[in-house]
Amino acid sequence: MKKFTCRGCRKIFTREHDRPSRRARYCTRNCALRTRNATCEGYSKTKLFAVWTSMIQRCENKKHRAYRRYGGRGIKVCKRWRKSFLLFRVDVGEPAPGMTIDRYPDKDGDYKLGNVRWATRAEQAHNTKMTKLTAQSVKRIRSLASRLSNTEIAELFDVSRSLISMVVNRRIWRDV
Description:
Blueprint lengths: L1 E4 L6 E4 L13 H12 L6 H14 L18 H5 L1 H8 L7 E4 L12 E4 L1 H5 L9 H10 L5 H8 L3 H8 L8
Helix pairs in contact: 7-8
């Protein structure tokens, strides 16, 4: 018999085997359910809960497919949100349909209060490491389009001619 401390109520309990399985880390099934409900209060099947768990996985799980772009670059989830889904929920609120979490204004910063927002995919596309154009450069490209060829503008901004064409024809950066 081996003694363990219940993760829910902190009581000492015994099991016949040396290492308890994930289920056996609690003294009873009720204690496990009560603890889980206190943590996420029935939100475990919501989009917000999925966002929270995915955010943590990207930053902490080295086997996650996106770890290299998040945790591998030193991006972390703040302690407040890491420890409590409910605090994360209070701080960021529920997302509107079609919105995803975005680190903004510092795209290289951590997931923390003041550096996240709910954004559309289009808004996020403007806030990536790969974005070479800014709102100012888009305005400049459009003003040059009447005087220079797309090839010449592309060389000036070190981007492809097709990108210049999409900017000039407002297929991208429509809001600028």
